[in-house]
Amino acid sequence: MDPIRNPYAPGAGQRPPELAGRDRELTQFGVTLERVAAGRPDRSMVLSGLRGVGKTVLLNALRSEAVRRAWGTGKVEARPEQSLRLPLAQAVHAAVREVAHRHRDPERVDQVAGVLKAFALRTELVDRKGARRWQPPIDVTAAKGRADSGDLELDLVELFTDVGSLAGDLGVGVALFVDEMQDVVPDELAALCGACHEISQQAAPLLVVGAGLPHLPVALSASKSYAERLFRYVSVDRLPREMADRAWTVPAGTEDVGYEPDALDELYRLTDGYPYFVQAYGKVTWDVAAGSPITADDVRGAAPEAESELAVGFFGARFDRATPAERDYMSAMADLGHATDDLAVRTADVAAHLDRKPQSLSPARDGLVKKGLIFSGERGTVAFTVPHFGKFLRGQR
């Protein structure tokens, strides 16, 4: 069929034409926005799940809900070894800019902008010319004695209080979205949780919505004991059969194309309902199919090409980032996961499989965790962050 009309969109964080299976989360967040704007307390949200399940897509959809309600919004993508202060300052700046132009009190806007500038100037960047500070494009004088102590938690509380109050004057709020939240260093994650805790007690109209790998709730709980009550935790997982079918049939229907039931059966068998795979197989199947309705033979004919694309872009790129020792560790995990559908395996079993002492494998394991290739949901266990990764590794031999 015409590839130009292909309705499927596999991509990192790219919203699919039919965002199937996320209605409940969007509805809940809409209620949270309305409650917080009305001065009623509610919790921020944390999304967690494997790579390719659509966390970033859902995070962006939640942000769109906030924008639709005229909230100020900003987004952060956390990175390992990078301080959170700079990206947070930039995200807050974006949120303030979205609400400031509607405010009727320019002096009050300038006051909050001065606090934001003071917070931002505590950030130092290092480039080839040496240390420099980020200068937010705000033509006001930085405030003194407000959000500039250098203590991230205290500064965030003061900044969030003032920014939330500014938005509250308009009957809305501010929502900050943090992607890859598991990469925030522990002390700064604790500071962010502490600030969210204080803001929630003030009933200030400010929300922080995070997204990250499956061990993010554990990391948050380790940073602050009350974090388990601070957020509403949402596990983002594979799509159930009905929702996966919608993700294939609704976009195709807009182009007057249908699927035979056996084709949908085969697609679900191959993808397990993981959203990235749903889009990837849907796109290739469309290009291979001769016409409507799409058949199971079309799906089977497209499968090798879809698998080849995933092997290079989705799996291979990640495998290539690993050192030889880390690849040995992952191969052992794949061997052990063959009988457990690639669920978590014991680190002691990995060591025994490689005939090594567990302590000697710590550098490889820690390296894989830092690279986001594996995670530890429970003490003494590890699992892949990418669905079907064990199957991919076994297929490379």
TrEMBL record:
Keyword match Amino-acid biosynthesis: no
Protein name according to UniProt: ATP-binding protein
Superkingdom of the organism of origin: Bacteria
PROSITE patterns in the cross-refs: CYTC
Record carries keyword Heme: yes
Residue ranges of the region described as Disordered: 1-22
Origin organism lineage: Bacteria, Bacillati, Actinomycetota, Actinomycetes, Propionibacteriales
GO molecular function annotation: ATP binding; electron transfer activity; heme binding; metal ion binding
Record keywords: ATP-binding, Heme, Iron, Metal-binding, Nucleotide-binding
All residue ranges annotated as the Cytochrome c domain in the record: 168-319
Protein's organism: Nocardioides mangrovicus
Pfam family, one: AAA_16
